[in-house]
Amino acid sequence: MRELLFLNQYLIKYGKMMLWGILFILLTNVFSASVPILVRLGLDEALKQSLWITGRGDALASSLIFQTALAFGVGILLLAIVRGVFMYFMRQTLIVVSRKVEYDLKNRLYNKYQKLGESFYRKHMTGDLLSRMSEDVSNVRMYIGPAIMYFANMIFTFVVVIYQMSQANASLTIWVLLPLPVLSYSIYQVSRRMNLGNKQIQEQLSVITASAQETFAGIRIIKSFGMEATFSAKFQAEGEEYKNRNMKLAKINALFFPMMLLLMGLSTLIVIYLGGKEVEKGAFTPGNLAEFVIYLNMLIWPVASLGWTTALVQKAAASQKRINEFLTADEHQEIAGKPFVFNREITIDNLNFTYEGKTQPALKNISLTIKRGEILGVTGRTGSGKSTLAQLLSAMYYASQDASRVLIDGVPMHEINLHDFRRHLAYVPQDVFLFSETISDNIAFGIETGELSPEELQKAVKAACLDKDIPQWPNGLNTLLGERGVSLSGGQKQRVALARALVKRASLYVLDDCLSAVDAETERQIIEHVSHWLKDATAIVVAHRIAPLRMADRIIVLEEGVITDIGTHDELVLRCDYYRNLNESQSAEFQ
Ligand SMILES: Nc1ncnc2c1ncn2[C@@H]1O[C@H](COP(=O)(O)OP(=O)(O)OP(=O)(O)O)[C@@H](O)[C@H]1O
Ligand SMILES: [Mg+2]
Q: Which of 118, 388, 430, 557 has most ligand 1 atoms within 8 Å of its beta carbon, as the pocket-test mutant?
């Protein structure tokens, strides 16, 4: 339950509205509790009149009873209307507050997601991130809204109704209240089982959704390997489980109302039996009896809701715990940090890096200086640690482990304001990601909206040799990408990502294998443009191919996370076997 204390800040934030809501609950209860009194008075009055007129049976007498009934009827109706109005305001305040808190929490989580680092995203699945933002936040909303509302309502109803009951007949009141704890407890038990059942259903639904998603994403592979039947069978089995869990819940649900009605009926029976005896003794009027039956009915729902709200609160606490886990997860940006100053060099000082959960380090004893304005080539066999190095230099593994051994102008990277650093960085990851927006929006991605001039866009498009591809797209650069738009070829995607980096006019470029899917001739042209573009910038260019490495001032060769050689193209051709082989095999290819 401690987890829910976190929400107090929101209760305080919307405190004024909550207080109004509680006031409306009180007013609703005062007006509801007046109804039974009117019923008693009306009934007793009509009975008195009917005794008085016994035997007369004339028109005057029956019209008198009719008038009494009408007057009390109208009174009860008016009370009900006023009560309804307050009830409306009660929901308009308390439930609205819960929606506002839901909105705040979702935004807070989403903003937090934006700030969490790479290692967080490797630990948590997309589905999990989504479910905490949707389901868990809804569960918490149920606590802020309905749970608090019904709980406060229950307390007021109890105080008001029990007070009035005990005024009328204290011992009968105790008898009437006896079955209620049983009712409350049973409803709590049923609600808990219902929540559990719901949770199991939700989990299975996630399984089905994830499985369907994967099937659609991989439908071509499934078909080409002839695996349709296997996948259908798997999906059917998952659906079967989903159905079974739903059926189980339906059985529990079916118990809920009959049980409630049984217990309610039992209490009513006690009132009528014992109350009837009191009337016989003359200690009670028939009006009192009717009043008690109504009181009992007024108590039933709050009592039932106590069991229900307890289960809601438990569920909300579990959800809030999950939300808090994310909200308190380490983020890297919060540190104000020093401004990014890069006038001299980037130094890597004996850096070792091991991925979480791995035993072998991905980078070992890396020491290196990259001068400002230099282009550094990085090559090496697949899996040798090139991308790892590129990511470390892009502060993707900020502050973690030995990343502090990366210094820019002598300042450890984790002491630099990350936001500032990223503004000066243009990073093209090896696995390109484009958003389902237009091509030009994807290129302008890193630039403030409206800040990118059409000329600059054209320049970047030309530098990435995308101009030749434009006629293929129905709306040119304004063609929508992704699900409803066109799909790009692998090389086109890489070049859009490259253009996105180029328009940033950054001072540090990290290009991870960003031309691997481009043909040799286009690659040559792009390199020509890009080396011109990077004239004043510093760049780290990762590549398997010789052509992009040729624009580098120096090239490092990585092998199993270790720098095995470093030098210019000419030097490496002479002394590094790996590099020489690479050079020879690729020049042979082009002749
Ligand atoms: N996210 C990760 N989690 C755990 N281990 C990883 C992760 N990414 C890479 N590795 C491991 O680190 C080592 C270096 O990988 P890296 O991606 O840096 O190689 P690379 O040189 O870029 O290879 P390629 O040429 O295929 O792109 C590999 O052994 C790889 O299995
Ligand atoms: Mg790589």
A: 388
